[in-house]
Amino acid sequence: MKVVESGQDLFELMGNSYSIQQIQRQIERVAETNFTIIVQGETGTGKELIAQMIHEQSARAHKPFVAVDCGALPDSIVESELFGYVKGAFTGADGRRAGLFEMAKGGTLFLDEIGNISTSVQMKLLRSLQERSIQPLGSDSSVATDVRIIVASNAILEDEVSAGRFRADLFHRLNEFKIYLLPLRERKDDILFLADRFRRETNEELGKEVKGFSAAADAYLKSYEWLGNVRELRNVVRRAVLLSNEIIELKHVQQILNQSPKHTEMGSSLPVSKLYSGYGLHEVVHEATAHLEKALIEHVLEETKGNKTQAAKRLQIGYKTLYRKLQEYNIQT
Predict the structure, then answer these.
(1) What is the model's pTM?
(2) What is the pLDDT of residues 79-89, one digit of tens each?
(3) Domains of the chain: which residue ranges?
(4) Could you give the CA distance from residue 150 to residue 104 in angstroms, rounded to a whole number?
(5) I want to staple 152 with a disulfide (CB 3.0 to 4.6 A). Which of 47, 48, 224, 307 is the partner?
């Protein structure tokens, strides 16, 4: 989905905090190059928006911007989606099909959650970047490519390299330039700007005239931690516009947030007592985070009736990441 329109700058979409000003300067500096870029940040911080902004400010702006969530693609089809295939490559391959590299010809290919692709696909991706060509599945010949690559990850790729889950040579090939997006809780100056932007957009969508937020609602929004980042804030504001008439009051925001699994599941079970049993903040926070993560996964699996593919999409993580966490937390499905 295209979010950035031609001529827009980052301040119109993400705010005017010092962090966003720095990112805008980085975009202006790198957009006109052909550098491969890693956009790093937590889920929901706006990594695809940054990729689109780079594309729109580059010489490739008149060519396609193609985005794919690598975490949402099963291992069995990642290679054919990226590189395409020829007739007879596998059962059901009845003809030639272009992959995403070819669809993005002359433009930008955005690979979200790059850390979720298998090591075999990582190797083929590395070769494609080095040789500026791809080899469709089942073909003996190569196809030249002209595409700018931007990748994103909510995991720290250096850590993934150290853990042996991501190839070091591919990381270094991708890491020509890096942009790091701070989580929303670390750029609170943008919260009210974003909330008002989402209010206006939702008003237009619903045909409503909600005029703004009460002072108490503003203060609550700004003090909240927003673990789901901009995506969570947007969802809360959209629901608040739906629930309210003229002004979004504190009660509307609290009603929505108090229905969240992280409130209903976690509130009474934080391991606060461990602070008085010799454990430090790091250990207590780690346990609380794990408890919350497990509760959220169980909640979504229950909602999707055990469908792990749907659960991974709803949680906005890769299928492999979900599978690893199911094992880690011993969650039965």
Answers:
(1) 0.76
(2) 888 998 888 77
(3) 10-182, 185-259, 264-328
(4) 12
(5) 47
